[in-house]
Specification:
3-stranded antiparallel β-sheet; DUF742 domain-containing protein
Length: about 130
């Protein structure tokens, strides 16, 4: 006996199983290693290892053009953020990708210094 809800349940089950399979059942990583704005790119001399699965190849292909953030990779691959972090972590630890911590926010400049610069520019250029 089947119901009309079974195709929807199968669809939901497939969406839940796929990330589990992609990550080999591993859990999410510490957010300290990779944030949404951590930048990664292909290592200039990647190691020669076993063949990679399609998702990892897709990430490598995306990163071959230059630095991309973790958030951009997740957007392009349409994979959940946690899955992308695990894939990128694996690729970095295997030597396929290089990561760079995000650039820290600039320190706030003293308002008095900015006003002096502004007054100097106004005096010089009118």
């Amino acid at each position: 006996m089947t119901t009309d809800d079974e195709p929807e349940l199968e669809q939901e089950a497939a969406e839940l199983v796929r990330p589990y399979v992609i990550t080999n059942g591993r859990d999410l990583l510490d957010d300290q290693e990779f944030s949404l704005i951590t930048l990664v790119t292909v290592h200039p001399e990647p190691p020669r290892t076993r063949p990679l699965d399609p998702e990892r190849l897709s990430v490598l292909d995306l990163c071959s053009g230059g630095f991309l953030s973790i958030a951009e990779i997740a957007g392009h691959t349409r994979l959940p953020m946690g899955v992308v972090k695990i894939l990128v972590s694996d690729l970095v630890h295997e030597g396929h990708l290089c990561s760079r911590a995000p650039v820290p926010s600039a320190q706030l400049v003293d308002r008095k210094i900015l006003e002096e610069v502004l007054h100097g520019l106004q005096a010089r250029f009118g």
